[in-house]
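On clarity, I found the account of how folds are encoded harder to follow than it need be. For illustration, here is how one protein appears when written out as sequence plus structure tokens.
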Amino acid sequence: MSASVSKIVLITGANQGIGFEIAKSLSSKPGYHVLLGSRNAQRGIDAAKKLQEKGLEVEPIIIDVTSDESLATATKQVTSKFGRLDVLINNAGICLNDEETFSGPALRAAYHDTFAANTFGAALTTEAFVPLLSASPTPRIVFISSTTGSLANDSNFPAFLPIYRSSKSALNMILVHYATKYKAKGWKVNASCPGHCGTNLNKFEGKNTPESGAVNAVRLAMLGEDGETGTFSNSEGTIPW
């Protein structure tokens, strides 16, 4: 790690898609060192290598947000090597695109698996890294959410993906909790919607690129002291709750 590095960033689910683009963008900024999170060790190594070959400050870290053991191991590694975390980006998530075909036990399993990754995983990852974020002079947390989880915008969408959308609505409440809890301490905690980007999450059917989806998350990760907190936004501005 370069001696000039001043910000340590952890991005979950960063071996592909929007997470990878966030990692690429932030690691290209002066003073940012990115921990590229991945459930699969080899995929994380391969993704990090692509950025390392460009001379970027990136290293892989194994982290499965649905596993308490994995979270404990990851926090120990970050504690041992850095002693703090400046930016946490909760990007890992899933979308079962055929979720509306499920019924009975399969439907229960779909709700369980989606919330375990998208909602509980983000909440428990944040809680696990709070001590390390507390050791930073400028803590930043970004939750990757979705406009489709906006209750105010519900009438603007057809009836689809109820499991995924409800997991993101719940995620927004978790964001509000942490933003409120740490506002007085100067933390910046926000949610970003990347837009409908073509990634493995949606079988690459999105109309936008992962690069464009990373832009607002990177902005929120780099907020200064006068930056916002407790907001839900995309590249065009604030999204109604």
Remarks:
- The chain has a mean pLDDT of 92.
